[in-house]
Design a protein that fits this description.
It is a single chain. This protein is α/β, with parallel strands linked by helices. It contains 15 helices and 11 strands. The strands form 2 sheets. The chain has a 6-stranded mixed β-sheet with strand order 7-6-8-5-9-11. Strands 2-1-3-10-4 form a 5-stranded mixed β-sheet, sandwiched between helices. Strand 1, helix 2 and strand 2 form a beta-alpha-beta unit. The N terminus is likely disordered. The structure holds calcium ion. The site of calcium ion has 5 residues, from loops.
Length: 370
């Protein structure tokens, strides 16, 4: 159902493009310059290095499709992390209007508002399919846009990684005790949960992880999954590759747009931009699933030790996650409002997916041998 919805949205995007093109051609033939579309040039900050064609690709898809669908009249140029602003300061740059828009992850900004974590992913939260259901059809995007309006920003989902991996470790981690004092790169509420389990949490942009891990400045690091992690070289810096990434079961990336710049856009450009973000959301997930499957096989063949988190760690992490949400909800009315609505949706969709998705997966997927 979701896929069909996305496909039809993309088709609508293509149709708007055709309509814009037709409008322009008619005007040219008749020699009457009415309803002319303005030329608009925007810049987009991102949190990513250009070497990651997957996640930077989300930004690229939006920019390329907006230009294609407006006949080159509305163009957005994406910039890698650090080219104009640092990777973790995209929201600040968009809020101040230094750049018109950005492609980033909302959970980099939980220091400004902890409820922003729900826009990307939270530990033991929603997978990609569920996250899209929540955002597009169960009030999630409205809740996030309400949070962002405080910053003079509007956001749209524009990519998803699927369920991530649980990170690279230089040594085996069997129990919660083994986590104590470990220096690990992990952002978002996942980082806060790890901190509650004794981890010394570090937040670094993607492009800085390899050197920190390789030189021993950190003992462990998570990024996304096999394809990206190999591109960053993380398999050369650590041997043990843990799964699953319980803190990011379906991480959404998003476009953030300066609200006043958004409001100044012609209505049809707004629709083109929205369609382009939906296309990026679908395309990134499909790309990740295809590439990660291949990359994981190559990693294991190359000697990486694929290791599941122990049940003890998973259970402790799950408890710490919900303790954290309850604590946040008790002291922050905004967090409480988003959390309670999200939690209700999670309970419902888990029940549904237990019946349809899980029963199928349990039967059909190859069983893990440990
Ligand atoms: Ca991650």
């Amino acid at each position: 159902m979701k896929r069909r919805h996305f496909v039809s949205s993309t088709a609508i995007g293509a149709a708007s493009a055709a309509a814009l093109g037709a409008c322009s051609r008619t005007a040219t033939r008749s020699g009457v310059q009415t309803n002319a579309q303005p030329r608009i040039r925007w810049r987009m900050a991102t949190s990513w290095p250009k070497s990651l064609e997957t996640i930077f690709g989300g930004a690229d898809t939006v920019c390329r499709r907006v230009s294609e669908m407006t006949g080159g009249r509305f163009t957005i140029t994406p910039f890698a992390a650090g080219e104009i602003v640092p990777g973790l300061q995209v929201l600040d740059a968009v809020q101040s209007g230094t750049l018109e828009c950005g492609h980033t992850a909302s959970y980099y900004y939980i220091g400004k508002n902890p409820a922003l974590g729900f826009g990307t992913a939270v530990p033991f939260g929603l997978n990609a399919q569920q996250q899209n259901a929540w955002l597009y059809h169960a009030g999630g995007l409205e809740a996030m846009q309400k949070l962002y309006s405080d910053f003079g920003v509007i956001n749209f989902p524009a990519g998803n990684t699927g369920t991530q991996m649980g990170g690279w470790f230089k040594r085996e981690i069997k129990s919660v005790t083994d986590l104590n004092g470990l220096k690990m790169r992990i952002p978002g509420l996942g980082g806060e949960v790890m901190s509650r389990l004794g981890v010394n949490v570090q937040v670094l942009p993607g492009g800085e992880i390899y050197l920190a891990l390789d030189r021993g400045a950190i003992d462990a690091a998570e990024w996304v999954g096999p394809h990206d992690d190999v591109k960053l070289g993380l398999n050369k810096a650590a041997q043990f590759y843990y799964y699953p990434g319980w803190w990011e079961p379906g991480a959404t990336l998003e476009i953030q747009i300066n609200l006043s710049k958004w409001q100044q856009l012609p209505k049809d450009y707004q629709q083109v931009l929205k369609s382009a973000t939906m296309e990026a959301n679908l395309n990134m997930l499909a790309q990740y699933d295809a590439l990660n499957a291949q990359a994981l096989t190559a990693l294991v063949a190359g000697g990486t030790k694929l290791t599941p988190y122990s049940k003890e760690i998973m259970q402790a992490a799950e408890k710490a996650s919900f303790d954290l949400y309850e604590a946040n909800a008790a002291k922050d009315a905004t967090f409480k409002q988003v959390y309670e609505q999200w939690k209700k949706f999670r309970e419902q969709v888990y029940k549904w997916n237990q019946v349809n998705e899980l029963s199928f997966a349990n039967f059909a997927y190859p069983q893990e041998k440990s």
